């Protein structure tokens, strides 16, 4: 018999996927009516653990106690019956259904919809009032912002009478203001006696929102602490297993002359919708210009247009020479030849070919360079492999095996392969998109140092990231992107998260 | 063209639209659930052969109906196992079943009856006969409306009326019932259904089996009502036309009815080159008229009639993500 003061108690949970031990003898106890954080690097086993709790996977060993009672959770239906609600990182909503339809899906009251819809409409009104969860019940989900879609997911769980709410990486897609609102909602839930579990790799939101925190590393639980009694540095050390520098050490920038000049850059997508609505800026040698913003506000299009993989209009000059923005001269290879390196946002689709080996991936984009050729017909694979080995050593790629396919490396090491390829080609301008998305803290530290080193070597760097911390600690100048436009430039020394957060939501200084 | 001729053409449009409509609604269930089915053609064919054979041997169209539907459901089940349980490629599975059906129907019919792959002509109780709706005779003398009722609406076989009733029924199921909500959800985002604790597999199998039943009805209609017996390749691409109609209708039941009537009308015109000549004042070659429904199919599939957005999870086997 377990202690009924705990909403959830897990004892000795283990789960292996083939040879990979995702969870090893996990013990955790979450007191009722608290907000509990579970933190760990990517691949630490957090999501696996929560999937076991939600009935997606069956644990190989261990026991689950809900409110003190031993509970078997063979499927999601059982988890819902046990009062567990889950908000996944990638929402499980039907885009062309209304909010109401999404909420009743799977929890209908009878074979006909009319009664279920009427009941849900009433329940929704009550829940919205109680928890600051306003959404239009008749809106189509595809028309809602991500913040509102997340509310629909929370409402879905509450409509199913969840007492325990699990949120997986809940703030990944939110603006700081939306995240603050979310935390307010969660505190409201806590006041009503609900138990909330947040899974995240972000230290800030753990410190801000939780009562207790459990830390996972490589499939094991390494410790439980009360949030009041810990610090971000201590948590980071527990996550990684060694001391980590959370703040980037960098000297002053010595910005030189303008290298890249962008004037009135515009991009339309396939549906003829304008995604980039006239962006202008200058990028100088030896500086990092950070572009902040919530994902989907045109940052991807900006990188793609400058990287030559998306047609655009406007004027872009590189060291005084015009760059073609459409037609034959606008492609990735031409850009590389011109001296623009590109670390794309999504390494798995744009940065690497996952089934190809590390050495093949290191050569991609630069495979025509003389140093990789044996003669006019045949490539010098041995040279590429040797080059790959050297780059893997410099960039600390683990394991340092050039013949391993890209998909066999962890996210952080995949990213290091891309970073190594683009940085070592010695570009004048480096476009960097989400350099540390899905990358472990240890690797983040390393990649950040490399970016600073490249800046100090006099390169011009355009850094696009949705991580505000990253933008603030690396950039020499910050521009915020909203709805396809730049909302003005800020000096990282004199701005703060609040100001940037408002800009990210499209609110300029005068209006705020 | 006089009114009587128009009525004849409309009457024949309805008869020809019926197998299209049944197959189109069949495809609607499967595709709305996220399982693409290019094998409507094969299922119709196997049902046509089976029903005609059973009806010919036992002299009962009802036995033929049951056998035809069961045969079509068996094919649907194979498609389900391949594409749901084994997560195979849905197009390949569908195409394979079409080939199997084209070959096996002739083989079995030849083995049973030895008439070059045809079944014997069905007569009497072995066939669905036209039904006169109430008061059809009385209304026949009323000009315009009465003759329309008597000539076009009345006098079809039972399956024509069944197909017509399936349109509102399908619309009701799809938009007003729990099953319909889940069916649409599983075709758009199966993960939403899965996390809600509902089985994606069971839903998709149920949809695929409904497709089997309706394709079966379409095949039975072809062999035991429209024609009097099975002949090789008698579906003549109707399964594909039904798919085109489904896209044209953007996977909506009422629109499917209008799309199928349009295709049926074109098929009816091909049977009456004389009518086309009187209307257009020129001699349109018969092969061109024959090709018209298929040309319309190509035009529809080329997306020239507006953007049709298929169910978002269509064609994708559902794999639980980690």
TrEMBL record, chain A:
Cited CDD domains: ABC_Carb_Monos_I, ABC_Carb_Monos_II
Broad class of the protein's primary localization: membrane
Gene Ontology molecular functions: ATP binding; ATP hydrolysis activity
Cytoplasm recorded as keyword: no
One GO CC term, this protein: plasma membrane
Compartments (UniProt record): Cell membrane
Keywords: ATP-binding, Cell membrane, Membrane, Nucleotide-binding, Repeat, Sugar transport, Translocase, Transport
Lipid bilayer topology: Peripheral membrane protein
Keyword Oxidoreductase: no
Family matches, as InterPro entries: AAA+_ATPase, ABC_carbohydrate_import_ATPase, ABC_transporter-like_ATP-bd, ABC_transporter-like_CS, P-loop_NTPase
Domain (ABC transporter) ranges: 8-243, 260-508
Protein family (similarity comment): Belongs to the ABC transporter superfamily.
Protein name: ABC transporter ATP-binding protein
Lineage: Bacteria, Pseudomonadati, Pseudomonadota, Alphaproteobacteria, Rhodobacterales
UniProtKB/TrEMBL annotation, chain B:
Membrane topology: Multi-pass membrane protein
InterPro entries from the UniProt entry: ABC_transp_permease
Keyword tags: Cell membrane, Membrane, Transmembrane, Transmembrane helix
Protein name: ABC transporter permease
CDD domains hit by this protein: TM_PBP1_transp_TpRbsC_like (cd06580)
Coiled-coil annotated spans: none
Keyword presence, rRNA processing: no
Keyword Secreted among UniProt keywords: no
Organism expressing this protein natively: Tabrizicola oligotrophica
Pfam families: BPD_transp_2
GO MF assignments: transmembrane transporter activity
Superkingdom: Bacteria
Transmembrane segments: 65-84, 91-113, 158-175, 207-230, 251-271, 291-310
Location(s) in or outside the cell: Cell membrane
GO-annotated cellular components: plasma membrane
């Amino acid at each position: 018999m377990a202690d009924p003061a705990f909403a959830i108690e897990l004892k000795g949970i283990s789960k292996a996927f083939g040879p990979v031990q995702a969870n090893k003898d996990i013990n955790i106890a979450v007191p009722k009516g608290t907000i509990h954080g579970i933190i760990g690097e990517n691949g630490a086993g957090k999501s696996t653990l929560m999937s076991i709790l939600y009935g997606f996977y069956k644990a190989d060993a261990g026991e689950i106690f809900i409110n003190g009672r031993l509970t078997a959770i063979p499927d999601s239906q059982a988890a819902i019956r046990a009062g567990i609600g889950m908000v996944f990182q990638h929402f499980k909503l039907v885009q062309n259904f209304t909010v109401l339809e999404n909420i009743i899906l799977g929890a209908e009251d009878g074979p006909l919809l009319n009664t279920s819809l009427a009941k849900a409409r009433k329940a929704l009104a009550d829940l919205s009032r109680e928890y600051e969860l306003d959404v239009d019940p008749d809106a189509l989900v595809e028309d809602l912002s991500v913040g509102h879609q997340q509310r629909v997911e929370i409402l879905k769980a509450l409509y199913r009478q969840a007492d325990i709410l699990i949120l997986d990486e809940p703030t990944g897609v939110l603006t700081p203001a939306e995240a603050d609102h979310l935390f307010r909602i969660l505190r409201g839930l806590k006041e009503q006696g609900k138990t909330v579990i947040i899974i995240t790799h972000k230290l800030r939101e753990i410190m801000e929102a939780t009562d207790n925190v459990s830390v996972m590393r490589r499939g094991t639980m390494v410790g439980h602490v009360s949030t009041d009694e810990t610090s971000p540095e201590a948590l980071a050390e527990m996550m990684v297993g060694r001391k980590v520098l959370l703040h980037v050490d960098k000297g002053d920038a010595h910005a030189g002359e303008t290298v890249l000049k962008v004037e009135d850059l515009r991009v339309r997508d396939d549906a003829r919708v304008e995604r980039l609505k006239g962006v202008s800026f200058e990028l100088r040698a030896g500086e990092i210009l950070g572009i902040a913003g919530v994902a989907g506000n045109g940052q991807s299009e900006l990188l793609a247009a400058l990287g030559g993989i998306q047609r655009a209009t406007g004027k872009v000059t590189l060291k005084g020479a015009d760059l073609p923005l459409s037609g034959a001269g606008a492609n990735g290879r031409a850009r590389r030849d011109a001296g623009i390196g590109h670390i794309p946002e999504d390494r798995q689709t744009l940065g690497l070919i996952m089934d190809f080996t590390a050495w093949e991936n290191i050569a991609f984009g630069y495979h025509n360079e003389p140093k990789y050729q044996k003669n006019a017909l045949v490539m010098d694979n041995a040279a590429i492999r040797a080059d790959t080995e050297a780059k893997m050593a410099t960039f600390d790629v683990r394991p340092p095996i050039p013949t391993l396919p890209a998909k066999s490396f962890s996210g952080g090491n995949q990213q290091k392969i891309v970073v190594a390829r683009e940085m070592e080609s010695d570009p004048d301008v480096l476009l960097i998109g989400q350099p540390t998305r899905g990358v472990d803290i240890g690797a983040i530290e390393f990649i950040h140092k490399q970016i600073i080193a490249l800046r100090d070597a006099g390169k011009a760097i355009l850094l696009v990231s949705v991580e505000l911390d990253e933008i603030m600690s690396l950039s020499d100048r910050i521009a915020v992107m909203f709805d396809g436009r730049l909302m003005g430039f800020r000096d990282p020394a004199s701005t703060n998260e609040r100001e940037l957060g408002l800009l990210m939501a499209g609110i300029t200084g005068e209006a705020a | 063209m006089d009114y009587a001729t128009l009525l004849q053409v409309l009457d024949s449009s309805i008869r020809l639209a019926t197998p299209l409509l049944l197959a189109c609604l069949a495809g609607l269930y499967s595709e709305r659930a996220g399982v693409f089915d290019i094998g409507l053609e094969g299922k119709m064919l196997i049902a046509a052969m089976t029903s005609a054979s059973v009806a010919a041997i036992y002299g009962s169209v009802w036995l033929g109906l049951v056998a035809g539907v069961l045969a079509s459901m068996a094919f649907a089940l194979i498609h389900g196992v391949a594409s749901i349980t084994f997560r195979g490629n849905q197009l390949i599975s569908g195409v394979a079943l079409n080939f199997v059906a084209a070959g096996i129907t002739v083989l079995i019919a030849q083995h049973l009856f030895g008439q070059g792959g045809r079944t014997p002509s069905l007569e009497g109780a072995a066939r669905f006969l036209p039904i006169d709706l109430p008061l059809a005779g009385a209304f026949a003398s009323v000009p315009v409306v009465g003759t329309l009722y008597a000539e076009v609406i009345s006098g079809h076989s039972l399956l024509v009326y069944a197909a017509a009733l399936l349109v509102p029924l399908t619309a009701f199921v799809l938009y007003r019932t729990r099953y319909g909500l889940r069916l649409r959800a599983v075709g758009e985002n199966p993960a939403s259904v899965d996390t809600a604790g509902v089985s994606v597999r069971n839903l998709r199998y149920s949809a695929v089996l409904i497709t089997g039943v309706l394709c079966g009805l379409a095949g039975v209609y072809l062999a035991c009502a429209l024609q009097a017996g099975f002949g090789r390749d008698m579906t003549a691409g109707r399964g594909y036309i039904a798919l085109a109609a489904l896209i044209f209708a953007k996977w909506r039941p009422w629109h499917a009815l209008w799309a199928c009537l349009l295709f049926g009308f074109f098929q009816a015109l091909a049977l009456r080159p004389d009518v086309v000549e009187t209307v257009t004042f020129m001699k349109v070659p018969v092969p061109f008229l024959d090709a018209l429904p298929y040309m319309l199919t190509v035009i529809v599939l080329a997306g020239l009639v507006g953007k049709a957005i298929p169910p978002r999870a269509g064609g994708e086997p559902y794999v639980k993500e980690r």
